[in-house]
Amino acid sequence: MTLTALTRRSEAAAATGTAEPAGPHGHGATPTGPDSHGATPTGPDSHGATPTASPRRSTRDADGLAVASFVLGLVGLLVMNILLGPAAIVMALVALARSTARRGRALLGLALGIADLVILAFLVTGNGVVAWNFGG
């Protein structure tokens, strides 16, 4: 049984008021001390692992969004700019809001997404349709 499963079981037991079986460290039904289950929890698993893991994951997700916005904006210059431009803009804004470490890439993704929409506007104005025409 993992430590998370033990913690969930102890939280469920505390919520229902039933006695908790002794865990791997000898914690029984009545927790005592600052490091026991239920006295002063620092996160959902009351071991302090979640508060340090959450910012790392959020930063990693924001970095992935920054890279994805850049790639979508770049590809959107050539094809499907009606879909890829707004997607690149939204992803870049979310990455910037989450304080990405790749701020420059997110800003490039934002600029490329806007450029996708500008190209789309010129195509619609010039051709009257939302389509690329590589032929003359």
Oligomer: single chain
Uncertain residue ranges: none
How many whole angstroms does the radius of gyration measure? 25 Å
Shape estimate = elongated
- Report, as a whole number of angstroms, the end-to-end distance: 68 Å
Count of DSSP strands? 0
Roughly what fraction of the amino acids lie in strands?
A: under 5%
Number of helices in the DSSP assignment: 4
* Residue share in helix: 55-70%
Major sheet attributes = none
What is the string of helix and strand elements? Answer: HHHH
Alpha-beta content class:
mainly alpha
Average pLDDT confidence is 74
Walk me through this protein's architecture.
- By secondary structure, this protein is mainly alpha-helical.
- The chain is 62% helix and 0% strand.
- It has helices at residues 3-16, 49-76, 81-97, 103-127.
- Helix 2 (49-76) runs parallel beside helix 4 and helix 3 (81-97) packs antiparallel against helix 4 (103-127).
- The radius of gyration is 25 Å and the shape is elongated.
- The N and C termini lie far apart (68 Å).
From the structure above, extract its key features:
single chain, 62% helix, mainly alpha, 136 residues
Brief account:
The chain contains 4 helices and no strands. With 136 residues, it is mainly α.
Describe the protein's topology.
Blueprint: H1 3-16, H2 49-76, H3 81-97, H4 103-127
Helix pairs in contact: 2-3, 2-4, 3-4
